[in-house]
Amino acid sequence: MFPQRLDAPQAYDIAKAMMDGFNRHYKLFRAESARAKHRFETQDWHGQQRAQRERIEFYDLRVKECVLRLDKEFAAGAQPMNVWQQVKLHYIGLMVEHLQPELAETFFNSVTTKILHRTHFQNDFIFVRPAVSTEYLESRTPGALPTYRAYYPQTLDALPEALHELFVQLDLQCPFDDLQRDVRLLGERIAARLAGLTLRANFQIQVLSNLFYRNKGAYLVGKIITGYTELAFSVPILHGSEGRLLLHAALFGEDDMHGLFSFARAYFMVDMEVPSAYVQFLRTLMPRKPRSDLYTALGLGKQGKTLFYRDFLHHLRYSSDKFRIAPGIKGMVMLVFDLPSFPYVFKLIKDHFPAPKETTREQVKGKYLLVKQHDRVGRMADTLEYSLVAFPRDRFSDELIEEIRKFAPSQLEISDRDGDGQQEVIISHLYIERRLVPLNIHLQECFDKGLGDADAARSMSSAVVEYGNAIKDLVAANIFPGDMLWKNFGITRNGKVVFYDYDEIEYLTDCNFRRVPAPRNEEEEMSGEVWYAVHPRDVFPETFGPFLLGNDAVREVFMRHHADLLDAQFWQSHKERIQAGHMLDVFPYDAERRLQ
Ligand SMILES: Nc1ncnc2c1ncn2[C@@H]1O[C@H](COP(=O)(O)OP(=O)(O)OP(=O)(O)O)[C@@H](O)[C@H]1O
């Protein structure tokens, strides 16, 4: 029961201190995101990547600050629960005109769950569900940009002119190489996509007012509407060779947008006063993408986690299957399980690792963090990290419980934690990641069908080519995957190959790529053992072949497209390029999307 009177004077002050903490967080987050425009204009690429990395840390720092303040000024932990109920009510009051209420609720949860006992993690005290609506939320600040702008070209011939106006309004502080030429090319692409459709009275182009920045690119994001058709589109803007701006490509439709907003890429920087309005607009472009993914892609990872967890609890309530050990070859470092009806995997770090693995729990965590902060170039799956996650015991197979008990006992507790009479499986620490089809399983499925079957042969061949492409994109981003076996890569719905085994990952620039030395005598030549000295970060690319290319058909495709991956010189030259400060482009779209 909620209190009928707000009679605890400290409750308002605590709520206000929390809101001040959140406002400070969002001000810093937004300012850092807004500075991406200037970094793009001045081609400060290393600065852009540094900011992308550092911004991820902002949230936890602000939560810590706020917890300390509440403790010091209000002895928050010693407040009775009726005061905490009032704190929540005051906080709701403070959100009435707030432009990021959903984020403010999450911040409130982050702070209070550090202070209150777990038995109070319920809707009376925290925001298990949202209390404040984000619908129709608009900034009333004078001079504030609208979330999106609409342009009405009337005819296809008038498209270039409308597009010209649109790009000029973005107010980028550097010249275009030839904007007239680019909008003409873009107009032709749009006209081709609209071929066969009648332009209806509502024909218009809507674009989000602020650009999306990531690495060396700025992306315009919007949709074209005619009649009942809505076509999502995005235009990447890059610096050309002279440093002048180019419209580089035209992306259309949901699949292209999914490629751009993939969970395997770094987060965007966007200046957003009302983030929920951006998410609502983006959802109309990608209706199948959960809101949690969109918040995460916008750099609002905590909101992504909150929404993911709510979606997960909902899914548990509306499903009845059991968690099980994930299909595929078991990991030596990670214990992986899934729920068949839910498209994610749950990964926990084992307590002990068999030889030849020489790593520790902390080192594995460090590698996962490295991936989170690094540019994932569409090739490394993002992970959500959770601690103390509770699952209903009756949804776990006994086999899985035994597996966890055997390999990660320190991570397992089975108890009735919240006192509701139901046993729970509580996992101390885990990563959650999108479920992919492991590449070894995918290839085996092709072999099982028989490579005489044209579809199976094509599918095998494109997976092998994509696998090599994935490694080359990782190389471009200064990542040596360490363990390149097929089982450590997965394939997405769109046939993209993505890496997910991070415990042996290294920066390319920390590795020494060497050729196997020529044997000095017959004894060395005949030796089945490694007879030459090997230092910890030495890598011998020519030795990859025997592990990867046992199958003749796979070998033939691999050698035709990616033989260079078996050559130390290939790796070494990339290492030197990165050391010289060059940053290669890895575009989140195919070459045929380019305008130029
Ligand atoms: N995202 C995923 N989607 C589907 N299956 C996965 C995913 N991540 C892991 N798996 C499955 O779990 C297995 C072990 O995962 P992972 O490679 O991360 O563990 P590991 O202990 O690091 O492996 P290794 O012993 O090679 O170091 C994989 O081989 C695969 O079958």
Automatic annotation (TrEMBL):
This is Isocitrate dehydrogenase kinase/phosphatase. The active site is at D382. Its EC number is 2.7.11.5, 3.1.3.-. Bifunctional enzyme which can phosphorylate or dephosphorylate isocitrate dehydrogenase (IDH) on a specific serine residue. This is a regulatory mechanism which enables bacteria to bypass the Krebs cycle via the glyoxylate shunt in response to the source of carbon. When bacteria are grown on glucose, IDH is fully active and unphosphorylated, but when grown on acetate or ethanol, the activity of IDH declines drastically concomitant with its phosphorylation. One of its GO terms (cellular component) is cytoplasm. ATP binds at A326, P327, G328, I329, K330, G331, M332, K347. PANTHER family: ISOCITRATE DEHYDROGENASE KINASE_PHOSPHATASE, PTHR39559. InterPro entries: AceK_kinase, AceK_regulatory, Isocitrate_DH_AceK. It comes from Diaphorobacter ruginosibacter. Keywords: ATP-binding, Cytoplasm, Glyoxylate bypass, Hydrolase, Kinase, Nucleotide-binding, Protein phosphatase, Serine/threonine-protein kinase, Transferase, Tricarboxylic acid cycle. It catalyses: L-seryl-[isocitrate dehydrogenase] + ATP = O-phospho-L-seryl-[isocitrate dehydrogenase] + ADP + H(+). The keyword DNA damage does not apply. GO terms for molecular function: [isocitrate dehydrogenase (NADP+)] kinase activity; AMP binding; ATP binding; phosphoprotein phosphatase activity; protein serine/threonine kinase activity. Belongs to the AceK family. Residues 15-319 form the Isocitrate dehydrogenase kinase/phosphatase (AceK) regulatory domain. The keyword Transport does not apply. GO terms for biological process: glucose metabolic process; glyoxylate cycle; tricarboxylic acid cycle. It is found in: Cytoplasm. Residues 321-590 form the Isocitrate dehydrogenase kinase/phosphatase (AceK) kinase domain.
